[in-house]
Design a protein that fits this description.
Blueprint lengths: L21 H9 L23 H14 L9 H6 L5 H9 L2 H7 L3 E5 L2 H8 L5 H9 L2 E2 L5 H4 L6 E5 L1 H4 L9 E6 L5 E5 L8 E10 L3 E6 L19 H6 L4 H10 L2 H6 L5 E6 L1 H12 L3 H9 L2 E2 L5 H6 L2 E3 L12 E6 L2 E5 L4 E11 L2 E6 L35 H41 L1
Helix pairs in contact: 2-16, 11-14
Amino acid sequence: MPLWHIRKRPKNKINNSTTPSKSLLKIKALSCCLPIPTPQSTPLHHSTTMPRPLPLLTLAISLVLLASTTTVNAHNITRILAKHPQFSTFNHYLTVTHLAAEINRRQTITVLALDNAAMSSLISKQLSVYTLRNVLSLHVLVDYFGTRKLHQITNGTEVTATMFQATGSAPGASGYVNITDLNGGKVAFGAEDNDGKLDAVYVKSLEEIPYNISILQISQPLNSAEAEAPTAAPTLNVTAILSNQGCKAFSDLLIASGAHTTFEENVDGGLTVFCPTDPVINGFMPKYKNLTAPQKVSLLLYHGIPIYQSLQMLKTSNGIMNTLATNGANKYDFTVQNDGEVVTLETKVMTATITGTVKDEEPLVVYKVNKVLLPRELFKAAPEKKAPAPKGEKEVADGPNADAPSDESNDQTADNDNGVNKMGGGRLAVLAPSFFFGVVMFFLFE
């Protein structure tokens, strides 16, 4: 019997109207998408209730789960390799050459890892850090190759690009790696500019996150004359870069105080600079002039981190950061926080926001910030937020700290805005599928 002929049983003999009930009207509305049971498959008796449409219920639950699920493809090559001590040397030089940060930024990557024994033969060549970076970047393929894919290569051979080729400094065929599936289940690797020689073979898989990152051990380093060619260190003049990118006032302070030498000495090993823009520095000058010479140096060094930190790295490594001013008991640190795409630096005295990127060329990255970073070692900490006073009582202002809330008030506004964003993004993402599920369940079981 078709669903639209079903009538709800009368509750009593007095009310025996044939007018369709609310439930029947809802069933009619859904009859276009609900499966219609036949007498042969689902016999209907006078005393039975309508069977529950399980396929639609299952679909509704699946849609809810799908809508409320997010996929994150982030990976950290340093943490993954830290679980394998026999690759500690390889892991160390990925960090020293800043390749680790580049690997973490990429969405799809394959790392041909070398154990400590294989790395010893490479280190014995006494290559410079910049040349070693080229050699190791030849071991990073810009495509995903898991164990299964290695044995399913079309025609048994494939040539793929590497991060060395992606730098633009690899001429001709250099920067490409040949992968060949040999007889007997072995897979060999060789640099394309090495006269067709296959130097290494696949040993085992260390980690695979399809199709994000694959870390495969190979037997020995790949040989490439171009990758091993002497490479000069890049010339990165911090103060010159700052002067040409809207940070001239900050650059002038670095030079006048002598703090620029510390910045220049840390460039090769990795450096992150937070630059207050010219209008910000000009507005801060009355306070800056009241500092002693050592205090001025400490304040300026407080705007540098002695490692390279891309914006993505800052977003994924929230927490306390040491600075160029950190020295023993003088912590001179601040906390990095992010809310979505907004990254802030909290110093216990104030909160600054990264407003743009001046330069990002590893090992140097320079960001613009909207405030001068004030360390608690030099400036009075902002007062803690108090609980709201009971109704009828007046709030008493803090006497000594009455001049501090200029920064705090801006931070409070930012926090309020972030709260709105969280409500609009996070809770709405949960409420939408929940509302959909509730509507479906209402129609099914009302």
